[in-house]
Amino acid sequence: DDCEVDTDGDGVPDHRDTCPDHADPDQADLDMDGIGDPCDPDPDGDGLDANEERAAGTRPDVADSDLDGLDDGYEVHTSHTDPTRFDSDADTLGDGVEVEAGTDPNSEDSDTDGVSDGEEPGWNEDSDADGLINALDADSDNGSVPDGIERETGTNMLDPTDDGRDLSPPDRPGVDDGCETTLGRGRPAQLRLLLAALGVPSR
Asked: Could you give the angle at the alpha carbon of 55 between the alpha carbons of 53 and 61, nearest 5°?
């Protein structure tokens, strides 16, 4: 129609042009928000404008630069994770997975039990049915001994029946986990005395 106005002369009439003031004959609209990419301050629709993308080191044409399941803008403004790293806290769990599960994507050990989130057995399961997944439960089997201590002493973090047993090498019969672990570090004299008092030969 010769009467149709085409301000930018790109062959697309203004009433159908996604960017009527900038020539864009291909009508590219990456985030499909109805605003053509040349006119869109956030063409990938991730919540970051061009300046913010540059500052964050993210891609302006990809909403999720690190492919972790979180848009760059969400990482910058909400979760405060690194939008250029799939796993901001290096616990082997992607940021998006952690946000969905409720663990802290900025903390390697969300429940501060001494075991990183990704190393927790059945990390996203609730082994003791207490309402907390194992990565958020410092005592995953509810056996009274924190997971980190269980790992250190060799007991099963998901078995409450072995809590308090001493399975750490070398095993000291009659010496509980706490005493053996503490006395075994730089205190051989005290350990020998304790073992002697218990009638256990020193090894």
From this structure: 15
C-alpha distances in Å from residue 1, one per residue of 4, 5, 9, 11, 15: 6, 9, 14, 11, 12
Handedness of CA 82, 92, 114, 101 (dihedral sign): positive
Dist. CA 129–CA 114, nearest whole Å:
21
Residue 146 amino acid letter: P
Q: How many Cα atoms within 13 Å fall on the side-chain side of residue 201?
A: 1
The C-alpha atoms of residue 172 and residue 12 are separated, in whole angstroms, by: 84
Q: What does the block give as tokens for 179?
A: 């005493």
Look at residues 166, 163, 125 and name the one whose alpha carbon lies nearest to residue 144. Answer: 163
- The pLDDT tens digits for 113-147 are 999 999 999 999 999 999 999 999 999 999 999 99
The residue type of 20 is P
- Would residue 42 be called left, alpha or beta, if left means φ above 0 and alpha means ψ between -120 and 50 degrees? beta
CA 161/CA 167 separation, integer angstroms: 13
Q: What share of the chain is helix, strand, coil (3-state, %, to 5)?
A: 30, 0, 70
The first and second tokens of residue 180, run together, are 């053996």
Q: What is the pLDDT of residues 61-75, one digit of tens each?
A: 999 999 999 999 999
